Amino acid sequence: MQQTLKGREILLYAKTLAPTLGKKERSIAQFIENNPDVISSMRINDVSTFLKVSVASITKVSKKLGCHGFHELKNSISQINYLEDEQLQQEVYDPESHQEVLERTVMNSILALQESLTLINSTVFNQVAQLLINFDEKKKLVLVGCGGSSALCYDFHHKLLKIGIFSNVYYDSHMQQMSASLMQPGDIAIGISHSGKTSDVFHMLKTARANGASTVSITNYLNSPVTVVSDHAIVSSVKNNPITGENASTRIVHLNILDALFTILANERGQKSQTNLHKTRDSVLAKRV
Fold first, then answer.
1. pTM score, whole prediction
2. What range(s) does the SIS domain occupy (predicted)?
3. pLDDT tens across 198-215, in order?
4. Which of 78, 82, 205, 220 would be a feasible disulfide site paired with 40, CB 3.0-4.6 Å?
């Protein structure tokens, strides 16, 4: 492409260009489109490591997007006024019917899930799965999240209980920090934060890690504070949806990540999982009308 593009034009063209590219170049274009605020503060080697692509591929895509290289691309993107852009999106979207709202909301969730398959680092995901598979049930498994993320923690806690794995979920920030202070090697702390900047989750993971526990974070932002204090960081990098809230699409992706980890655990535990599933299911049959 010969024409020089600037700021938001780059993001729009990345969205248009992505479907025509090969798998690796497509993942680069999608990452640029979905994470302009992150891209502007990253080095080319950071993007290369995260997406598992070569520096040359990133430079090639940058040139296809009308820039001389990655440095020019990220400098141009950094000039975008994101607050103004989000307000514009809010104003432009004017649904004609409730059905349209339903269809658009569902489609946004589907697109978020599709994008996550391309962007989530499978090596890190496999490491987390193996960590949970090897977990000694005599040790502690603590789940921490605030706001909408706390609901994901409780959902995972509920699923784990079905197959006989006891975990702890703390909503109070003092109890989160107290539990972290008592963690030891062999324990696992999992923190969920859409922004990666939630202070309670950050401090809990930091303390748990200092005490020798394995720490896992699930977030939407690469190189965010919670990833720095995590042994394993699963990063979804899904584009925010201004209609349903800042982290609505991300929350659906994070729920599916946890569901995948649960499914792996249940399968790996074999008959033990099946036995416990039957026990826990039968225990609440009398609660049904």
1. 0.74
2. 128-271
3. 999 999 999 999 999 999
4. 78
